[in-house]
Amino acid sequence: MEFNEEEFKDQFLEKSRFEIVYARHLESTLKENQKRIKALLKEKNVRIKINYDERVVQMSTTSKTRDPYVIIKSKDFITLVCKGVPLQEAERIFDDEISYAMLNIQQLASNKEVFINRRNRLIGPNGDTLKALEMLTKTYILMKSKCVCVIGSFANVLKVEQFVLKVMENYHPVHLLKQLVAKKEVEQCTEKKDMNWKNFVPVVKKKTGGSKQTKRKFNVREGKLFMEMPVRKEDIEMIKMNKRKK
Questions:
Q1: What is stated as this protein's family in its record (predicted)?
Q2: What sign does the CA torsion over 82, 119, 101, 85 have?
């Protein structure tokens, strides 16, 4: 069911407004695309104002606004633009079938070294992993330092989100891509679509690294905690001599 503005003739009782702060290095991009951004939001009956001194983008509804959700879509659009997403991709968010997600992958790593290694693994050599993921899920993926931005349909955005989370949990991306390919083949096959997918989709296990550490065995004797020590030949001989004397 499509929204028809002609059915709503009265204006809103309250005005909705949002403010979004953008990074300084994106100021030149906003200035270059300012006319296009304002023209696009004007078509949606949303007022926009860019304050370059405070680095804030302000938007609000007008007396002509009839779609109650368009201000939310406009906020998402400006958020994507302020994250460095190209306008052509950010404009897709106005489609009701399109969603987006932003993941802070730095919070998913225990330390900086782990974050860098798994981030590089997620990107892949020459960005091949992300390109393959985009092709399989038909989404747009942007990697910005510690943030991953995904634009696409609701189901595909969820797939990418799960993929990214698993890679940051130390799952190998190549195995996850193979799993996605297998799932896609099963979905397209009418005979296997309603069957149990466990027989067709490979199971991906988490990669475990590092050397195995031997656990120290502790025994409790006479209320004291001590560690078992290796028995020496000298100790055995001393025990035998003591037994003979007795």
A1: Belongs to the KRR1 family.
A2: positive
Q: Could you tell me which residues come within 8 angstroms of residue 13 by beta carbon, excluding any fewer than 6 positions away?
A: none
Amino acid at 203: V
Where does the pLDDT of residue 201 fall: very low under 50, low under 70, confident under 90, or very high at 90 and above?
A: low
Nearest residue to 81 (alpha-carbon basis) of 137, 127, 41: 41
Taken in order of first residue, the domains within the chain and their CATH numbers are 7-95 (3.30.1370.10), 97-203 (3.30.1370.10)
Cα(125)–Cα(123) distance, rounded to whole angstroms? 7
Token representation of residue 73:
């879509």
pLDDT band at 238 (very low <50, low <70, confident <90, very high): confident
CB environment 184-197: b (16+ within 10 A), e (fewer): eebeeeeeeeeeee
Question: Strand pairing of 98-104 and 140-144?
Answer: unpaired
Strands 17-21 and 140-144, by their bridges, are unpaired
pLDDT digits (tens, 9 = 90+) for 70-99: 999 999 999 999 889 999 999 999 999 999
